[in-house]
Amino acid sequence: MTERLNVVGANVPRHDALAKVTGRARYVADLPCDGAWVGGALWSRTPRARVRNIVFSPDFDWSRVTVITARDLPGPNEVHMIKDDYPILAGDEISYIGQAIALVAAPDKQTIEEALGAMRPDLEELPPVLSVEASLAKEAVIWGEDNVQAHYRIEHGDLEEAFSRSDVIIEETYRTHHQEHLYLETNGMFAHPRPDGGVIVEGSLQCPYYVARALAHALGLPLEKVTMRQTETGGAFGGKEDYPSVLAIQTALLSMKSGKPVRMVLERREDIDVTTKRHPSVIRHRTGVTRDGVILAAEIDIIFDGGAFSTMSPVVLSRGVLHAWSAYRLPNARIVGRALATNTAPNGAFRGFGAPQTVFAMERQMDRIARELGLSPLEVRRKNLLKTGDTLPCGQVLRSAYAGLVLERALDISGYEEKHGKQQEDDRILRGVGVSVFLHGGGFTGAGEEKISGRAAVEVADDGIVEVLVSSTEMGQGAATVLPQIAAEVLSLPAWKVRHPNPDTSRVPDSGPTVASRTTMMVGKILQDAAKDMRATLTGEAAKNAGVLPESILWENGRLASGGRDLGSFEELALQYKEEHGKPLRGEGVYNPPSDCQWNEAEYRGDAYKDYAWACDVVEVEIDADTLELRVPHVTSVVEIGKAVHPMLAEGQVIGGTLQALGWGAMEEVRMEKGRYRNNSVSTYIIPTAVDAPEFTVEIAETPSPFGPWGAKGLGELPMDGGAPALAAAVEDALGVFATELPLTSDRLHALLRQRRK
Amino acid sequence: MKGSFLVNGRTNEWTFEPDATLLDVLRANGHPEVHRGCDEGVCGSCSVLLEGKLVNSCQVFAASAMEKDILTVAGIGTIHEPHPIQTAFVESGAVQCGFCTPAAILATLALLRKNPNPTDEEIHSALDGNYCRCTGYVKIIEAVRLASRRMSSHD
């Protein structure tokens, strides 16, 4: 039976939009600050050194400021993340440029500058490890026993036997580079000491409970004495998953020591210098194929540059390893992934979370296979696409697969086949078209959802509006609209009668972090249960008061009725409930693990993700034959996401995510020099602007998944995975050169052409 | 120093440092809707209209903006009475994190005042100085088209 939906699937007005267009939305830098101090940090300018001492000049009056060094910490010098290896402040050793050595709070910025100028770290410089190659060779051991922050291995089938049966073996190494999030609002935190010795921290972030727990750990406080409140967040993309814990602790320390409210908002240069980036990667593929392009054997070796500390690297690498096959069947495979430490700023979460790197390599390898065998990129893809019932190298049997569906549909819409291979030698504008097919697992990897066991609640506020109580944040992606839609649908209310306040850990249950494309799919499902719980409670209450059977109660258009008799509006009955019971009407939900998903972490095998979203990108390029300047006039993206709760927002995610992917593929480049980012400003780190924006044709396919509310699957990260390889394939079509490295700047295209001429 | 600033139709007397930027002064005096994104005149988050012209307020000395007409996004509409451009941004899905939104709206206003029926190319180049990291610009451009249609049909 098809359920008729009123709110889910409708493009209701975005709940936070009016405040944002009228300038009423308040970000952390905008909060009123009577009497607040500002915070600052002394950042390391050397990638590796022993700290002998920090010298404080006697010419500065240190009573004007509050200073904190690693010696002044009330608890362990650890930012609690996955491993506790990230120090709050450099202690005896400096491990990267941009590491905080000391913190200062003062009434104003100028005093901070003066104080920072009066401090000098006395250092003994050590030889830094600045590349994964140097790290692997253990030129120096800078992390653990062997510089390896994480290591995974997947074995599937009989690899050697499959290689021996192969007609051709194709080897290639692919490299990807750092990517800066460049959310327009930099990281910022505002801490207030609580009279009971605790602390309240407000700020820009994705994961309120990650930060609250990190605060409690570092400050030696019980969790109840720490309140974390999210402020309006001006973009995050993963970049506010890990670093906010560091900054919140630093700001809280200054606040507690000075006894003042203290705010630390990073300047753009600081933000680029010190916060995490997308992991650079080196990925080697060795693939055994038949002459007609069927993959028999695949060996994939993945190396991620983790930077100085592990942050999220173990889980980023894990997702990268578990997406290494992209949308293709590898009947026999060995996949090895390692994250290596270097003396560079720690790399961390960024939309896609390891998958964009490994998908890029796999998609390029498909094009490489096509090239070597003289087949078309489509032919090779069609022969190897994953299908329902196929077994992934990690042992997961796919309950459903829509790789073929998205590919064929995208080919139809884009006219790929008419456009591919049609470039003219004498054209001044060289045109090309490329395709990628990919998937993205929704929710945490493996048993992550089981481990975190998210909780959600709904509660009716005194104005009769239902509040969604979750720790999932609005950061631009639309959670403050989509989550209310889900609760509203269950409660037969219009979407505007449900709101999602910015999470405050003293009020909301822990629904988990806002990451892993899990908010709509996983938290949405828990929220759906919470709303059902509320609905059952009010149904029971209304039935009891009216002397009728609960089964006779009908909910429609915000009213309850029984046997043709109107029992009142939802608000009336909910407020009446509060009066009678002395507590607001509330519903609760907790994650309900599906019984048919199994993951064995020790063996690293099983159902890696509950379900996958699928997509195909067709990217068209125009390259100026003289300047090699590249333009993307048009992109077609077909995504299969189960169910779009809000189609317009979903489309916005696809377009925005794809342009980030194309930015990474075409122009965004962090230039490193001896461990320092040389282009740490918006004028030198180039991202796409309106002039670069291609036209988009987006189509959303919906085949409901059993794991999300009304079939919805994760979407946020999917569009980040396929843009870069489709772009590289389009460049190949236009210029005839095969790029193994990003970004595809005109310099790189020039080098590739020169290489071909040789 | 002291100076008189005409912001959103209201005159204010403000004290400020001689080297303060217009952005600093606006943010310090109750206009947090003007956002600081890069402080180097590139991202456009701090855009305001100065005598009707779109400027990056982080690149304008406050002293040079005294007595001049300054418009921020808070001056063109409210939650209860939004400007047609603001409504068009809401309806087109042009708003995500919202950090660039006030500036993009002012860039649109500056464009449509000069050129009520811009071509797509003119829209793209008018918004070139207003970075957005969320939307991929497509829906912002749709919002400009929608606002243009609505505003010219009102004239």
Number of strands of chain A: 30
The pLDDT mean of chain A sits at 97
Greatest chain-chain interface? A-B, 55 and 53 residues
What is the percent of helical residues of chain B? 25-40%
Beta-strand percentage range of chain A: 15-25%
CATH class wording of the largest domain in chain B: Alpha Beta
Shape designation of chain A: globular
**Span of the ends, CA to CA of chain A:** 65 Å
Q: In order across it, which strands form the biggest sheet of chain B?
A: 2-1-5-3-4
Helix and strand composition category of chain B: alpha+beta
What is the beta-strand fraction of chain B? 5-15%
User: Could you tell me how far the N terminus lies from the C terminus of chain B, measured between alpha carbons in angstroms?
Assistant: 43 Å
Number of H/I helices of chain A: 19
Number of domains of chain A: 3
Assigned CATH architecture of the largest domain in chain A: 2-Layer Sandwich
Rg of chain B from C-alpha positions?
Answer: 15 Å
Within CATH, the superfamily of the largest domain in chain A carries the name Aldehyde oxidase/xanthine dehydrogenase, molybdopterin binding domain
The third-level CATH topology of the largest domain in chain A is Aldehyde Oxidoreductase, domain 4
Low-confidence segments of chain B, given as residue ranges, are: none
Number of structural domains of chain B:
2
Going by helix content, strand content and strand pairing, the class of chain A is alpha+beta
Describe what you observe in this structure.
The complex is a heterodimer of chains A (758) and B (155). By secondary structure, chain A is of the alpha+beta class. In chain A, 29% of the residues lie in helices and 24% in strands. In chain A, β24 and β25 form a beta hairpin. The longest helix of chain A is centred in the last third of the chain and has 28 residues. Chain A is globular and about 80 Å long. With 155 residues, chain B is an alpha+beta fold. Chain B has two domains: 74 residues, Roll (Ubiquitin-like (UB roll)), CATH 3.10.20.30; 71 residues, [2Fe-2S]-binding domain (DNA polymerase, domain 1, Orthogonal Bundle). Chain B contains five helices and five strands. In chain B, α2 runs antiparallel to α5. The radius of gyration of chain B is 15 Å and the shape is globular. The chains are: A alpha+beta (758), B alpha+beta (155). At the A-B interface, α1 and α17 of A face α2, α3, α4 and α5 of B.
